[in-house]
Amino acid sequence: MNTVEERRCLTERATVLSTHLKRGVTADFYLPAGVEEVSGLGLLLINDGQDLPVMGLQQMLTDLYTRGEIAPVLCVGITAGADRKREYGVAAEADYLGRGDRAENYSRFIIEELIPYVLDKYKTTGFRDLAFAGFSLGGLSALDIVWNHPQWFSKAGVFSGSLWWRSRDQDDAAYDDDRDRIMQQQIRKGHYRPGLKFFLQCGLMDEAHDRNNNGVIDAVDDTRDIVKELMKKGYQPEDVSYLELDDGKHDVATWAKAMPVFLKWGWGR
C-alpha cells in the first residue's frame, strides 16, 4: 500500500444465510484498498458489528494504514441478532438464567458457515491468521469460540467482556467466584492451546458493583482472573495483553479508544 488511494479502507455489506441460526446475518467487510491477494491478510471477525460504524472503524483503519502502523487486515463486523443474549455466551453451558442457550448454534455458524463464506467470497483457501474479537457479551462469545477452536484461531480480543457469566446467581448464598464463573472454569479445566494469544481490555468505570467488597469493581476482578487463569495454564506475558483504562466505561467510546491498541498489538508493524 504505497499511494494515498491504496491506504484507504473500503467497506461493503452482505447477508449470510445461516442454517444454524435460522436467519440471515448481516456482515460488514472492511477491506484495505489495493489488495489483490487476500491470503496474505489477517482475518479479524468482530461480534456486535453494528457498533463498528459508531466507533468509526473505517476511518480508524485508514489512519493506521496511512501511518504504516499495522499490516493490512480484513475485518468482518457481524451484526448481532434479536436473540443476542441467547446466541452469545459460552457454547458448553448456559448461564443461571438460561442465557446463551444458542451459543453452540452461533459457534457452528462462525466455523461452518461464516468462515467458509468469507473464503469463498474472496476466492482464497486461507488467511495469514484468524482472530475473533467482541464487546461485552460479544467479547465473552469471541473468547469462548477462540478457546475452543484453536485449529482456526490464533488471537482473541475481549473488550469489557461479560466475564462474570455464571452458573449460579451471585445472590445465592452458595455462590462462589472460583466455582461458578463459567469462562474462568472452562479455562481452568481445559488444556493449554499452543499458539493462542489474548488481548483483554477493561475500564475502572465499567460498572460500580463490587460483590466481594475488595475495593475493585467486578468487571476488573473478572477480567484479571481470566488473565490469571491463562497464565496458570502456561501462557507467557507476551501471549496475554491486558489493557486497563482508568477512565474506561462500558461503552462504544471506550472501546474506540482501545481498538487501535488492539489492532497494533495484533497486526502492528
UniProtKB/TrEMBL annotation:
Signal peptide: none
Pfam family, one: Esterase
PANTHER family in the cross-refs: ENTEROCHELIN ESTERASE-RELATED (PTHR48098), FERRI-BACILLIBACTIN ESTERASE BESA (PTHR48098:SF6)
Name of the protein this chain belongs to: Enterochelin esterase
Source organism (scientific name): Niabella drilacis (strain DSM 25811 / CCM 8410 / CCUG 62505 / LMG 26954 / E90)
